[in-house]
């Protein structure tokens, strides 16, 4: 589990116009990595 203390709830939604681009990129990397391990 990863907590991003500087961003609020639902920061991953693209339609919010968020400025948390570093956190979103990190979260996507973690999601893709998890899925690759889970379905390998």
What key phrases describe this protein's structure?
40 residues; mainly alpha; 1 helix
Protein topology:
Layout: H1 21-38
What does this structure look like?
This protein has a domain at 15-40. Helices cover 45% and strands 0% of the residues. It has one helix and no strands. It has one helix spanning 21-38. The longest helix has 18 residues, at 21-38. The radius of gyration is 11 Å and the shape is elongated. The model has no long low-confidence stretch (mean pLDDT 86).
Spatial separation of the terminal alpha carbons: 20 Å
- Alpha-carbon Rg, integer: 11 Å
Mean pLDDT figure: 86
Helix content: 40-55%
Number of strands: 0
Q: Biggest sheet: strands, sense, closure?
A: none
Main structural class? mainly alpha
Q: Estimate the global geometry from the Cα principal axes.
A: elongated
Helix and strand element order: H
**Low-pLDDT windows of residues:** none
Counted by DSSP, the helix tally is: 1
Strand content: under 5%
Quick structural summary:
The protein is mainly α and 40 residues long. The chain has one helix and no strands.
């Amino acid at each position: 589990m990863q907590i991003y203390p500087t961003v609020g709830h639902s920061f991953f939604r693209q339609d919010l116009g968020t400025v948390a681009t570093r956190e979103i990129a990190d979260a996507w990397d973690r999601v893709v990595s998890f899925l690759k391990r889970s379905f390998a």
